[in-house]
Amino acid sequence: MSRARGSRAQMALGFESVYGTPPAANAFWKMPFASSTLGSEQPLLGNELLGYGRDPLPPSKDAITANGDVVVPLDTRFLGIWLKALFGAPVTTGASAPYSHLFKSGGDALPSMSIELQNPEVPSFRMNTGVKANSINWSMQRSGLVTATVSCISQGETPATSSSAGTLEELVLQRFGPFNGAIKRDGSLLGNVVSGQITYTNNLDPVETIRDDGKIDGADESVAMLSGEIVVRFATTALLDQAVDGSSCELDFGYTIDSDNSFNLIAHAVYLPKPRLPIEGPGGMQATFAWQAALDPIEGVMCSAILVNDMAGYSNPS
């Protein structure tokens, strides 16, 4: 008997033209991922009825919930697929490699995806349809693997014993590393940064209507939010002064391999709280700023994401 192993698991992803309807076979990418909890679950409700003795009557099925997190690498190519899910289709410029893909926050309608999780040795192929990306978060630090967690909300999951994704499009994986990362404030490198954490969320609102299949009708976009933390060694009062006077700055969280391969998430109007300055011993002092971004009246958006690579676009494979 074969047993499922994560080492043989695969993920297929394609964008839907109709919400909840998978694209045709051979229109999916083979996606790299470190872990996934995406799927559906249906809990049981204990029976509350009396009059049959101390042993309970059979339970009832509760509502189906379909969601989960996918941990993915930050890389030069596949990242654009997740950015499209989070922000909508980009504006792509460049007649030949490299191409620059500009994603902006604030879009009214986000695309949905179909994601098939595959365990061929069982065999088990679980197609999650109507998947929308709710949030992404990652950390910047001096060392360690650079991964992001993408939280998704799905309409439902359909199991099968064979794949309906067909032949998968495979891209060459080129990961960003911590050595490629930098944080800039108003265009200048922000010094004395120990770590950074970034969270963008669409605050999707599941439409939980009454249906005979247990699925939701959709997930509506609400007010987006971009926030995080930066931890800095206390060497200057520049950030404290900004926090006190209530002004904003631009923060650029970027990774650059070379001029042809880079990623920048730019928060155009960032506000800082005034933090405590703890003295915890004889070592260096650190301050943690839990920042929040807002709509920038000049840029017209809260944030922009720019991905530079050799991809001409992010339409489904064909």
In total, how many domains does the architecture comprise?
A: 1
Helix content: under 10%
The run of helices and strands is EEEEEEEHEEEEEEEEEEEEEHEEEE
Total helical segments? 2
Which residue ranges are poorly predicted, with pLDDT under 50 across at least 5 consecutive positions? Answer: none
Sheet/helix structural class = mainly beta
Number of strands: 24
Task: Classify the beta-strand content into a percent band.
Answer: 35-45%
How does the major sheet shape up?
A: 20 strands, mixed
In whole angstroms, the N-to-C terminal distance is 36 Å
Q: Mind telling me the C-alpha Rg?
A: 22 Å
Overall geometry: globular
User: How confident is the prediction overall: mean pLDDT?
Assistant: 95
Textual characterization of the structure:
Strand 8 and strand 9 (99-104) form a beta hairpin. This protein has two helices and 24 strands. The protein has one domain (6-309). The mean pLDDT is 95. It is globular, with a radius of gyration of 22 Å. With 318 residues, the protein is mainly beta. The strands form three sheets. It has a 20-stranded mixed beta sheet that branches. A two-stranded antiparallel ribbon has the order 5-6. A two-stranded antiparallel sheet has the order 18-19. The chain is 5% helix and 44% strand. The chain has helices at 79-87, 238-245, and strands spanning 10-15, 28-31, 35-36, 39-41, 44-45, 60-61, 65-73, 91-93, 99-104, 113-119, 124-140, 147-153, 156-160, 168-169, 181-185, 188-189, 193-201, 205-206, 219-220, 225-233, 249-258, 261-271, 286-293, 303-309. The chain starts with 9 loop residues before the first strand and ends in a 9-residue tail after the last strand.
